[in-house]
Design goal:
Radius of gyration: 20 Å
Distance between the termini: 75 Å
Helix content: over 70%
Shape: elongated
Number of strands: 0
Largest sheet: none
Order of helices and strands: HHHHHHHHHH
Oligomer: single chain
Structural class: mainly alpha
Length: 196
């Protein structure tokens, strides 16, 4: 009697974890059904059955990345100083991108031609956007920043993401001190600009 297939949610989580490891370790070009199956200890047909195709695996990674980033940002407590809270939020965002450059590429740079986010995928980042806009709103309500919250949040994210991507690619400086200085100078300048 043939053994029943075990395409369980647990196996799906195991394959997703393997995909994340594979991409982080070897880059996006390493993500193939055969390589992923080997990393997960299963078969290529199981990968296809669980995720449909490579785009399905990338889609799951995309959602997992935004869930991880959202959880990291949600853990930050509010303090008495909403501007310093924005600095802390930037550091948490930075930490995620620098620790997970390949996953950040899946989330923000679309390195897979087979995956073009549909509206439901684009909504995956809603919790991240809402957390950042809420922090900006608090700083504006406290009179510490001025401007439209969405505009300020967009400028803030563009700067933070750009700095994090440059740091991740080792293009922000040759020493830890230089990297830290450039983060501080750029972030403080942006926040001072919106305080005027």
């Amino acid at each position: 009697m043939p053994k029943p297939k075990q395409r369980t949610p647990e196996l799906g989580e195991q394959v997703l974890a393997a995909a994340l490891r594979l991409v982080e370790r070897d880059g996006v070009t390493a993500l193939t059904a055969r390589g992923l199956a080997g990393e997960a200890g299963t078969s290529p047909p199981a990968v296809y059955e669980l995720f449909g195709d490579k785009a399905g695996v990338v889609r799951a990674m995309f959602f997992a990345g935004f869930a991880q980033l959202g959880a990291a940002l949600a853990q930050l407590p509010e303090s008495e100083d909403p501007v310093e809270d924005l600095v802390a939020l930037a550091q948490a965002y930075r930490g995620f991108v620098v620790a997970h450059p390949a996953l950040a590429a899946v989330m923000f740079s679309r390195p897979f031609a087979s995956f073009d986010p549909a509206p439901e995928e684009a909504a995956a980042g809603a919790a991240v956007r809402e957390r950042i806009v809420a922090a900006v709103r608090l700083a504006i309500a406290a009179g510490r920043l001025h401007g439209d919250p969405t505009d300020v949040a967009h400028a803030y994210v563009a700067l933070v993401h750009g700095l994090a991507a440059a740091e991740s690619a080792r293009r922000l400086g040759g020493s830890a001190a230089a990297v830290e200085r450039r983060w501080d100078v750029a972030l403080r300048a942006l926040l001072r600009g919106f305080a005027a």
